[in-house]
Fold this sequence. Notes:
Layout: H1 6-9, H2 15-18, E1 23-27, H3 31-44, E2 47-52, E3 55-56, H4 62-66, E4 76-82, E5 85-90, E6 96-101, H5 109-126, E7 130-133, E8 143-146, E9 151-154
Antiparallel strand pairs: 1-6, 1-7, 2-3, 2-4, 4-5, 5-6, 7-8, 8-9
Helix pairs in contact: 3-5
Amino acid sequence: MADLLWDDVKCFFDPDLMGSLPDVRVPGVSVEDWQAILDLVAERGWECQYSDGETEVPLPRAEVVLSRAADAECPSLRVRPAAEVLAIFRFHADDEVNFDVDLRELQGQERLDVFCDFLRAIGRRLGKPVLMDPEADYGHPVLGFDVEADRVVLLAEPLVT
């Protein structure tokens, strides 16, 4: 059974209402949690591409990525949990996992299910909530993985469009 039903949550996937690149985050993490995510990507065989600036390089360990100089360019990790769904992880801080998804790719029940599976996999691996905030509205999650419920749940009332 699906965590969320498209008809109930499609307003949260409308790029005009939410911004096309909402922020997905896991607060209160450690370098070890970051490494657990990198390990999860490898274990699941998700297609990925790590870039340091404009250069694609092999994925280093989390402690290497997160110990770069403060003025260094922020590296990114592009992960495809499915061919049509892309998550771009940004290594801004060692205490919060942060990644973007493109809502234009997350349309319909099938892609919503892929997205929920992705959030659930991360949340279960870390034992922490995974939250999605509207673009430029940090700290106001609309949905996310709930550790206690062991599923993705709504965290805000759906908008009437």
